[in-house]
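Pipeline run #58 for the internal structure catalog. This entry was flagged by the ingest filter as a single-chain record with no existing model, so it goes straight to prediction. Upstream metadata was stripped on purpose; only the residue string is passed forward. Reviewer on rotation: M.T. Logging verbosity set to normal.
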Amino acid sequence: MNTLKNFALLLVITLIFGACSGPSGNYPGTDYMPDMGYSVANEANVYNNYWANSWDEESVISRKATSMPRLPVKGTIPRGYAGYALSVNPDGTLALLNGESSPNAIHTPINGDVPYYYADTEEDRNRAMKEITKNPFPITSAAIERGKNLYVIYCGICHGDKGDGSGYLVRDNDGKYPAQPANLINDEFTAASEGRFYHAIMHGKNAMGSYADKLSYEERWDVIHFIRSLQAGAKGAKYDESENTLNSATPASKVVKKMAEVKVEAVAKPEDTNKKH
């Protein structure tokens, strides 16, 4: 009887220690509580979910599809979805979204869910270059500064701090990068329409991927403002909130002046409420 007990105890001890196998190469070994070390949740943009999680095998949707960013529910409009209104009335819509239209207005930051009706094709790229000709946001020092910070994070490594295509990947790697990044301050890109830049941000171009999910609607235009300021500096032109001699973007000073003129005109010509109809 004692022999049987000793054998059973030895078997239990063997199973306990044997269950914890040692690591080897890229294999971390057997985990005592694996769900504490590996996420069993559906992680966005992560395709290699925990192997013991069987949800993907039981699903009719692929792992990649369930890991990608989701679209809004059909029939709903995300808060800040203001692309069309901005294209029609940029000054008035911005005032409304910034809470400046009335004392009770709510500040509504514009998000990245603004619709974009140009596909990732060469035909639609050319159409975007032809039809998108003006930045809907006025030039401000704050917009250029925000654009600069975002440019350094997302663009500078390839296009360079000066926009001349001499970023870290080319400059500090002895030119081993397989594709020379575009020189954004040359004559070709300086003369290009806003659509060429915006379409590249939305869909990417050549070795450059899309940044549509990295930048909000306003941030994309901030980056374009900064690129234009680099071009202006290289060409000896002006591109700031007081003056623009580079392209058709509106300096903030002109927007403020226009709004002031509208207010003065409204005061000078009040509506005649006693007019008979």
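catalog note: The mean pLDDT is 77.
catalog note: Residues 185 and 231 are 5 Å apart (CA to CA).
status: ready for reviewer M.T.
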